[in-house]
Amino acid sequence: MENQLNPDNLPNNLPNLPTRRRFITITSGFIGSLILGDRALGATKPVAKKPVVKKPVVKKPVVKKPVAKATSTPAPSASPSASPSASASPTPPPNTAPDAPVIGKASATGATGATIAFTAPAKNGGAPITSFIATSNPGGIKVTLPQSDSGTFTFAGLTGGTAYTFTVVAVNSVGTSSASAASNEIKTLDVVPASAIAIKKSGVALTLADIEVGKTISATNSATNTNLFVARLGEDLFKGYPTSCTHQGGPLAIQGKTLDCPWHGSKFDAQSGAVTTGPAGSPLTPIKVAALNGALYII
């Protein structure tokens, strides 16, 4: 049998209920359930809550790893005499003697003189060139130029009529270079004796270019202004002959390879002066002729 009670008439020993409108349904012999809107209460005995036992939290000890402190090694201080850039650069090679100069043209300037041109080397060995030295061959005559650039040597004291070559070296504080190549060969001028008489042709000194080998020409003794024949027997071999026949002194004339006398028909070899046709019985007396410095002289 169900009875519906007014909540306001409930006994005081009932649990406190919310202030909402309460509906209680009682089943015979039991207090069933209290319907509290959307909340239900249990039976007569309250539900005992189990105590919550909190487990102690064991804290793990925090082990701190040692932190390595960065240390810096101070750089060694540079010595006052050396800069960082200088210590990093490679050591330069040591200085050496210069390269050999380049030889130029040699020229004879007289019986005892010559000039020799040269060019300074491109590499001086790392030290300035202080001088150049030229040497003659033969003779070993030396001339020094105290300069560092190209130039020309002037030689004196050479021997007349002699063939020479020359070499040049460069000098710096380290040493002396190897010698240059030999120069061209020159021949110093001959020493013309004071007694030598120039031979002329048409008033001009007779030279090697005026007479071919194997030829005979007419010329003039510049001292006496008299005529003579000059024969060229070889490159450097000359002879002179008088212009009168040995028979009776008739005037001789060049006829090809002979010297002919118009008076009696005598003939002489134009190169040797020997009689080739009489009545002349004696050869022409030779006159000593020499080429000195390219010109012909009676000596």
UniProtKB/TrEMBL annotation:
<dbReference type="InterPro" id="IPR036116">
    <property type="entry name" value="FN3_sf"/>
</dbReference>
<dbReference type="GO" id="GO:0046872">
    <property type="term" value="F:metal ion binding"/>
</dbReference>
<dbReference type="InterPro" id="IPR036922">
    <property type="entry name" value="Rieske_2Fe-2S_sf"/>
</dbReference>
<dbReference type="InterPro" id="IPR003961">
    <property type="entry name" value="FN3_dom"/>
</dbReference>
<feature type="domain" description="Rieske">
    <location>
        <begin position="203"/>
        <end position="298"/>
    </location>
</feature>
<dbReference type="GO" id="GO:0051537">
    <property type="term" value="F:2 iron, 2 sulfur cluster binding"/>
</dbReference>
<protein>
    <submittedName>
        <fullName>Unannotated protein</fullName>
    </submittedName>
</protein>
<keyword id="KW-0411">Iron-sulfur</keyword>
<dbReference type="InterPro" id="IPR017941">
    <property type="entry name" value="Rieske_2Fe-2S"/>
</dbReference>
<feature type="region of interest" description="Disordered">
    <location>
        <begin position="65"/>
        <end position="105"/>
    </location>
</feature>
<keyword id="KW-0001">2Fe-2S</keyword>
<keyword id="KW-0408">Iron</keyword>
<feature type="compositionally biased region" description="Low complexity">
    <location>
        <begin position="68"/>
        <end position="89"/>
    </location>
</feature>
<keyword id="KW-0479">Metal-binding</keyword>
<feature type="domain" description="Fibronectin type-III">
    <location>
        <begin position="97"/>
        <end position="191"/>
    </location>
</feature>
<dbReference type="Pfam" id="PF00355">
    <property type="entry name" value="Rieske"/>
</dbReference>
<dbReference type="InterPro" id="IPR013783">
    <property type="entry name" value="Ig-like_fold"/>
</dbReference>
<dbReference type="Pfam" id="PF00041">
    <property type="entry name" value="fn3"/>
</dbReference>
